[in-house]
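Pair request: fold both.
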Amino acid sequence: MEGTGGTRTPGGGDEGFDQLLLPPEAILEGLPDAVVAASRDGRIVFVNSLAEELFGYAREELIGQPVDRIWPERVRERYRQNMEAYFASAHPLRFTSEAFGLRRDGTEFSGEMSWGILQTTAGPLLMAIGRDISARQAEEARLRGLAAIGERALAGANPADLAADAIELVRTTLPAQAVELRLHSGEVLARHGRAMSSALSVPVGTEGELRLLCARKLTDPEVSALRALANTLAEALARLRNEERMRHDALHDPLTGLANRVLLRDRLEHALARSAREGEPTGVAFVDLDHFKEVNDLHGHAAGDALLAELGRRMRAAVRPADTVARYGGDEFVVVCEGVDAEAMALLGRRLLDAVRQPLALGAARHRISASVGLALGVEDPDGLIAAADDAAYRAKAHGGGTVELSG
């Protein structure tokens, strides 16, 4: 047949095929992973360009060097023993496992590596082919941590505990030399490392900010994770603020901000329980404003509300920090004092009278008002103690007001 046994065309026969064959070094250089080969005596005989990048060495700095140079100190002995076992095996091993590497700058990385023995004309070589998976592992750890913190936030965990968890997550999965969660009030809810005057700041809703001092610029996935963490913390802190506000509203008078009857009763019962243990009386002052109705009638309820709010502030300033001032209803107030005697209560009554009778400027008008104050002392029966102080205030009002009466 014509053409049989003739010269083969380029690429169409053995001659063309031979021309396409690549030397082993070129094949290993073209792999998408780092490649390191070591001889039986443990010295490096080949690295590709990706291995240079991974370990931070130039090729000539590694060729001929002990392979344990690129292994962390803590795993070197184990890796040496494994290498000896690979070379001694009658059936060369082929498997994939996680391994740890050591860069030129002293930092470690976690690698996904395939290890095994390759038979060559120069003898067996230990071949390691792999890649750095540290970034992937850190991202997976961040995602797991974010999910766990999110679940705890939904379950109502304490925001301070969540903040501590968040700081630990940032510290272990981001290149953060220092990190803190700072509220807008200036309070630092959680911190790792030193205080920072300037740092990367990520808003935590309207509650505060996450501040980081980083060893390098964060990648986009790292920034996204940080923002997700900040959003979770913002929701938790907002929930806490709402719960605190609800608890406060349930126990305080909305106009004056003073304790309401519920909180008053609780504080009085606790004070009397202490009186029963320690034998020191608890004092109650009942403050009934004189002629308050005239303020509402002449100037309107808005002026009356403003006056009540101002008097509440004055009475708080007139008592000890541990004393409780409550709005009992309308123009009536009650003060609870622990560990007092008749002399101390009489002095308190006079301070309350002075606080009330000082002129009040509300808008263009100036108001003068007085109060009738009743005092009572006891070690039990909260209802009876309030009733006794109320009766004493009634007697003070009957005497013309602006005076103090002590319950008999």
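--- second member of the pair ---
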Amino acid sequence: MLEFAGIRRFKTLMDSDFPLSNLNVFSGLNGMGKSSLIQTLLLLRQSYERNTLFNQNQTRNLGLLLQGDYIDLGVGSDVWSMQAEIPNIEFLFKWGENSIPFEFSFEFKQSSNLLPISKMPVSNHIERISLFNKNFQYLAAERIAPQNSYVMSDYHINDLNSIGIRGEYTIHFIAENSLKNIPMLELVHKKAEANTFLANINAWMGEISPGVRINAKVFPQSNIATLAYNFVQGNDVTSEFKPQNVGFGLTYSLPVVVSLLRAKPEDLVIIENPESHLHPAGQSALGNLCALAANNGVQLLIETHSDHFLNGIRVAVKNTIIPPEKVKIFFLHRQEFSPEHSSSVLNPKLDKNGNLDQWPVGFFDEWEKNLEQLL
């Protein structure tokens, strides 16, 4: 598990430390840097996959690739802290309590999308770390939308163990694995009819839209997969509905539920805005599912704007689904009138009753502000 991250001179993170745990939640106003830690991990992942981080033959190290499959951040001038005095970017990561820290340092090159390496950890056994192996899943904020068909990829779901950055292979995965048991039986929903993927996808998606049933089919000859929904209505089941006719939120959240149910202990799962397009009850349910997965060995890094999602986690703590020490909350903010354009990191802490020890200005407090004005 990634225990610690230190970021130096990367975007608005001039000098920021993140003591991490199983479930890590990043929040803050827009443009405050809450995505930046996640972006450093994605940059390392895509550089590793493109062999610009550790060359396969170990003959040369190239650099940090700023444009790739996971993320495109431009060139050096776009990611180097604008008021930094030292012309490099540094990352410090620690995996495991007794492990040696991994130190990465990259030279600043203003107009280059490849930042040369100036300091690098020894790459022995790097493949054991979840960030660099198949125990990794990233879901971007922009995910699959309702449509008539979806792409298939045996390579992604079987060889790479991925449902895609946008969840684009989710439907293919469901169709191929619907009758297999989920890896962690602790995530079996109390209303699930079996321990299988499909039974539990239906049950957890039922927290978002009651009675929903997922129908995923593959057509190998056309290399497409299709998705349809039924709904349990009393003692009957409705006919099939196309994704376009049941609202945006169901299809948009489906990759989130699938990525959590398919995860295993020691996996690293990064999800941006899991709550997008969902009713508050659905957002809270996803918070509860994330807490359950994290308590059973999956490490989660979540970026969110949702107080309902956060409250789902808080309730999970109170209900002893996850202990408070396994939850880390990071609130990034910036002083408007400060001469330095850099972010600070606050760490509101949860107690065993789900209460937070501080509520900084801008930290999920808009409801109280609006209510105060109304009253």
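Observation on the second member. The longest helix spans residues 280-295.
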